[in-house]
Amino acid sequence: MDNSDNYFVNLVSSESYMIPIDIKAAKKSNFINCFLNDFPNEDIKFDKINYSTLKKVAEYLEHYKDSEPKEIQPLPKKDFKDCIDMWDYEYINLSSENIFEIMLAANFMDIKPLLELTCAKIASVIKGKSPKEIQDLLNIESDCIDDEENSSNETGDED
């Protein structure tokens, strides 16, 4: 049986939960499209993508199965909502942690519009913020900022 006879494909999360998705929607992912060309009757296992993230990605693919997402406009100084479609705005209104999980999944699954959406959302969150504010907003635990400050102080002392 070829792909045209198959209406759904199962995406399988790292926890082994199955998410059935319309094959037309699934093929919006370049990774899935290539996989189905080689293994047309196989479930697609994602060992590093958890159920909630994979379900969110499937929701995005299903929403755009018959259309293309609106192009994301350059980020203005105002609201992120002005740059994207309202459905996309509501879809990506998540915690930074969830956005990063979706970003990684979109990158792995080769879903360029979803990757661009997640990047634009993160860019809108950090726009105009100091490095310390960005570190706090994104829950980044790093000594890089302190190391850079110490390094610049040490360099300044040598002059």
Would you kindly provide a written description of the structure presented here, covering whatever features stand out?
With 159 residues, the chain is mainly alpha-helical. The protein has one domain: Potassium Channel Kv1.1, Chain A (2-Layer Sandwich), CATH 3.30.710. Helix content is 52%, strand content 8%. It contains eight helices and three strands. It has a three-stranded mixed sheet with strand order 2-1-3. α3 packs across α5 and α5 runs antiparallel to α6. The longest helix has 15 residues. It is globular, with a radius of gyration of 20 Å. The relative contact order is 0.12. The N terminus is likely disordered.
Brief description of this entry?
By secondary structure, the chain is mainly α.
* CATH homologous superfamily (4th level) name: Potassium Channel Kv1.1, Chain A
Give me the number of helical elements.
8
Largest sheet: 3 strands, mixed
Give the terminus-to-terminus CA distance: 74 Å
Widest sheet: strand ordering: 2-1-3
**Range of strand content:** 5-15%
Specify the structural class. mainly alpha
User: What is the name of the CATH topology?
Assistant: Potassium Channel Kv1.1, Chain A
Number of strands: 3
CATH architecture: 2-Layer Sandwich
Mean pLDDT: 86
Order of SSEs: EEHHEHHHHHH
* Cα shape: globular
Unreliable stretches: 1-5
CATH class: Alpha Beta
Radius of gyration: 20 Å
Domains counted in the coordinates: how many?
1
Helicity level: 40-55%
